[in-house]
Amino acid sequence: MASAFKLAPTPQWTLRYIQALLANGQTDKAFTTAESWLKEHPQSHGFRRQLADYYLNHGNYGRASRHYVRLADEEVADSETLNNLAWALHQTDDAQALEYAERAVASADNNINAIDTLAWILIDTGRDPRRGTELLRAVNDIPDALYPTMQYHLAVGLEKLGERRAAVNILSGIVNNNHRFTD
């Protein structure tokens, strides 16, 4: 694959090469290769988005944010990109997270992940736990098994609003059904 990448360093081959490096635990080489390629092709928005996603998935929120912000600034960011930017910024306690979360929901109000991110930022930061909880209640008909993290976020919001019994019921449901989630 490395030879194919060197012969034809297209965005697709470069991404495949980076995926192979990441799969083989060569994270530093993967990101160095990606950054070098992007430096030579700064207008490759799809590549930039994929690289930002890789950084996000590897917990490098600062670098992910940098690439997502560039996409947002160049007005090529869709709702999911804005949502990922909001999430990355929230992980670094950047106050701009709320702004991007609002933009993500405004650009696609049916994006459940964006709604969850916005709600969680409102709840977690204490900015407006009531609104965050209301947003999650509005999409609460989603099966728990699909979105246990959203259920967890709702439980935290309810607890912050003093609705401890409702929060415990939700958390009990998550635990009793052996749902796995990352929060």
Coarse structural class: mainly alpha
- Strand content range: under 5%
The helix content, as a percent range, equals over 70%
Biggest β-sheet strands, sense, barrel: none
Treating each run of at least 4 consecutive H or I residues as one helix, how many helices?
11
Low-confidence stretches: none
Give the total of beta strands. Answer: 0
* End-to-end gap: 36 Å
Order of helices and strands: HHHHHHHHHHH
Salient structural properties:
73% helix; single chain; 11 helices; 183 residues; mainly alpha
Description:
This protein is 73% helix and 0% strand. α5 packs antiparallel against α6 (79-91) and α10 (148-160) packs antiparallel against α11. The chain is elongated and about 60 Å long. The relative contact order is 0.07. The mean pLDDT is 90. It is built from eleven helices and no strands. The two termini are 36 Å apart. It has helices at residues 2-7, 11-23, 27-40, 45-57, 61-73, 79-91, 96-107, 112-124, 129-138, 148-160, 164-176. With 183 residues, the chain is mostly helical. The longest helix is centred in the N-terminal third of the chain and has 14 residues, at 27-40.
